[in-house]
Design brief:
Elements: E1 2-6, E2 12-18, H1 25-37, H2 41-60, H3 65-85, H4 91-114, H5 121-150, H6 157-160, E3 167-168, E4 172-174, E5 177-183, H7 191-205, E6 212-216, E7 223-228, E8 254-259, E9 264-267, E10 282-285, H8 292-304, E11 309-314, E12 331-333, H9 337-359, E13 394-399, H10 402-409, H11 415-420, E14 426-432, H12 442-446, E15 450-454, H13 461-464, H14 467-471, E16 486-490, E17 503-505, H15 513-526, H16 532-542, H17 566-570, H18 612-629, E18 633-634, H19 640-646, H20 650-662, E19 666-668, E20 675-677
Parallel strand pairs: 10-14, 10-15, 11-12, 11-13, 13-14
Antiparallel strand pairs: 1-2, 3-5, 4-5, 5-7, 6-7, 8-9, 8-17, 15-16, 16-17, 18-20, 19-20
Transmembrane segments: 65-86, 98-118
Protein name: Sporulation protein SsgA
GO molecular function, one term: ATP binding
Length: 684
């Protein structure tokens, strides 16, 4: 009958020993003692074998000069082999092995030549042999005791993976997570050796590569923590059920999924001076089919559920994934010129928001900044009395599928924005498939401290994650698009040992669409609206293109005019004259023909060509019409139909655009040949 042994913490040992029974008690005890003595028998067996070798050798080479030479050379050779073979072990064990081999081979040489009982040879055998065997027994006992005390027994695992002599400390066992401190051999091993051995450790444990991680100690180059997660809890898809903190502050954590050990996957956006956490911008990176859309929906739904934040959102895909949430946005645009206007608006509001925060005594945005300023400690008045200024909500500038924006506006379009927005109580979100350096400038990438790295091509891992996180065991390239939603999250506020832990975002299905629509309706009625400073700075750039989120009490669609009744139809309706002809005197004679009227010109249809003064007036009117339509970025191609209608060339328009820029009516953009209209009237 076998007995399974466990320690005080309930961990089972993989060996079985005979159990104690009343039947054959003598045999049972003897077998148990023999089993316990087995590890200590080899040195004693070696001692006996050495004596037998001396007796047999004396029968073969008594008083033989040739035998003496051969035995001496053999003794020296064995000692050298023992020393060379111990190169990979500790110095003490290497020296102990070499001395044991040298002493044993020297005694065999003497016994073979002079006889095992001649002179002191037998005394050396009877005294030195047991002493040498006992020294090895003592060494084994000390090693077992030290390993048991430190809790570092690894069953030979580290030796198998090339980390011999590294010490594992007492492991911390949690549900589906084992964390063990690791101390490497001083002067011979570093944390880089562990990072290179992670794949072999996973192979030895028969686990996926992502299940084994290593977190180096920042204060030591040879110490760290080895983390093993034996079961992948992310294989089960968890559907999104709604926001985690409806009506809370944007400063509270955003729950977007869970880690592989079941812990919640969270992020923070604003900074916290008490916790020492900085504000952050976010990069969402992942290949096609990796679940980038669901990751974005998790973040956006959490953001829209908070009371003190507004979102400006650009989506060149015409809100294909985000349509149910569009009503909750403060400003939503599609790609092209509207996105260019939004970028310019974000650049304009940053200094305005920074000035407001500084004037009210905020070194960074905190939830109190979103409330009316009734605290004298946060007053902008020189006399220190409460100013009562409207609060400033946190601002999210989100640029979905940013590859299009970067391609049209340049790879450094977000550089200045990301470098300055954190101090203005704003966070920039950039989402694209491949954040490589040929698409995004290195300065912009360095200004995005947070990243959600989903499955990607193995060659793109270094573009998304820091090198230290990859060395710790993070490998999004192992997933590709085969595991949608799997991700690594690196962000301020998350413990660094979590950076290399895989997580998975919640899944959005058609069943979640009604919940998202309800959330957008809640944001319309209860969410924050843009403060006067932010709205004014945005309107100064975007003009009528920025309207802010509409609500039932705000500037929403106007009700239809009441239908005319029969009595109304009988009332006089005034002169039946077009409004544009109302100022014409019917008694005035018509003007005479002007040169060019109804005279065909080669290559041009018949019609009136405006004079230079009239053409300039029509051009200014065209700019006003574009502004009224919300088309704030224009170029010569936008005037194609206008040129045909007024018999003017695109080269003439190009000159007028440059003149308008010199006069301040237009402003240059990052794209050659494109100009941004400066609003003629700016709200206070």
């Amino acid at each position: 009958m076998a007995h399974q042994w466990t320690d005080q913490e309930g961990r089972a040992y993989p060996l079985s020993v005979p159990a104690f029974t009343n039947e054959g008690a003598g045999g049972g005890v003897g077998a148990y003692l023999l089993n316990r003595a087995k590890p200590y028998l080899p040195p004693w067996l070696g001692w006996v074998a050495t004596g037998l070798a001396g007796v047999v050798g004396h029968q073969r080479w008594p008083d033989s000069a040739a035998g003496g030479v051969g035995l001496t050379l053999t003794s020296v050779a064995l000692t050298g082999v023992a020393w060379a073979a111990g190169k990979g072990i500790s110095k003490q064990r290497r020296l102990h092995s070499a001395v044991t081999v040298a002493a044993g081979s020297a005694w065999v040489t003497a016994a073979c030549l002079a006889g095992p009982t001649a002179g002191p040879v037998d005394d050396l055998f009877l005294m030195g042999g047991p002493a040498m065997a006992l020294s090895w027994n003592v060494r084994m006992i000390m090693r077992h005791n030290s390993e048991g005390t430190a809790g570092s027994s690894d069953g030979g695992l580290l030796e198998k993976v090339g980390l011999a002599r590294a010490k594992i400390g007492a492991a911390k066992v949690e549900p589906n997570r084992v964390t063990a401190p690791l101390a490497l051999q001083p002067g011979e091993q570093t944390n880089d050796d562990v990072a290179k051995a992670l794949a072999r450790i996973a192979s030895a444990l028969d686990l996926p590569k992502a299940a084994v991680r290593y977190t180096p100690d920042p204060d030591s180059v040879r110490r760290g923590e080895l983390v093993i997660v034996p079961e992948d809890m992310l294989s089960e898809v968890v559907e999104w059920e709604g926001p985690s903190n409806l009506g809370g502050s944007i400063a509270d954590p955003l729950v977007i999924g869970r880690y592989d050990d079941g812990a919640p996957l969270v992020m923070w956006l604003p900074g916290d001076p008490d916790a020492g956490r900085n504000s952050t911008h976010v990069l969402i990176a992942g290949g096609t089919g990796s679940g980038k859309g669901d990751a974005a929906l998790n973040l956006l739904t959490e953001i829209l559920s908070r009371r003190d934040v507004i979102v400006w959102f650009s989506d060149p895909k015409a809100f294909q994934d985000f349509a149910p949430l569009r009503a909750g946005l403060d400003w939503g645009v599609e790609g092209g010129s509207p996105t260019e206007v939004m970028v310019a608006a974000v650049e304009a509001v940053i200094p305005a928001r920074t000035r407001w925060l500084g004037a009210h005594g905020y070194r960074q945005w905190v939830p109190e900044a979103a409330q009316a300023q009734h605290d004298p400690g946060h007053s902008c008045r020189p006399d220190g009395t409460a100013c009562g200024c409207a609060g400033m909500p946190f601002l999210i500038g989100w640029f979905e599928e940013s590859a299009n924006t970067l391609r049209n506006l340049g790879d450094d379009v977000f550089t200045g924005m990301t470098q300055e927005a954190r101090s203005a109580g704003a966070a920039i979100f950039v989402s694209l498939q491949r954040p490589s350096y040929d698409q995004m400038s290195t300065s912009t990438r360095a200004s995005l401290p947070s990243v959600i790295a989903l499955g990607c091509d193995p060659r793109d891992e270094g573009f998304a994650l820091p090198e230290t996180v990859i060395d710790a065991g993070a490998h999004p390239g192992a997933w590709g698009n085969r595991r949608p939603g799997y991700c690594y999250v690196v962000s301020p506020g998350i413990p660094e040992d979590r950076y290399a832990s895989p997580g998975r975002t919640f899944r959005f299905t058609p069943r979640t669409v009604p919940v998202m629509e309800q959330l957008a309706a809640w944001a319309q009625h209860h969410g924050a609206t843009a403060d006067p400073v932010t709205a004014g700075a945005a309107a100064s750039v975007a003009g009528r293109a920025y309207t802010g989120r509409t609500t039932d009490s705000g500037t929403g669609p106007q009700p239809a005019a009441p239908r005319a009744t029969e009595e109304d139809a009988m009332e006089p309706a005034g002169l039946l004259v077009d409004p544009e002809d109302a100022g014409i005197d019917p008694e005035t004679e018509l003007p005479g023909d002007e040169p060019g009227d109804d005279t065909p010109i080669f290559g041009q249809e018949a019609g009136h060509k405006p004079s230079p003064e009239e053409a300039r007036r029509l051009f200014a009117q065209a700019l006003t019409e574009f502004e009224d339509e919300g088309r704030m970025v224009v170029g010569p191609k936008d005037f194609t139909d206008w040129c045909d209608r007024h018999s003017l060339s695109r080269s003439w328009v190009s000159l007028r655009l440059k003149e308008a820029a010199q006069e301040g009516r237009l402003d240059a953009t990052n794209t050659t040949g494109r100009w941004r209209i400066v609003p003629a009237l700016t709200p206070a």
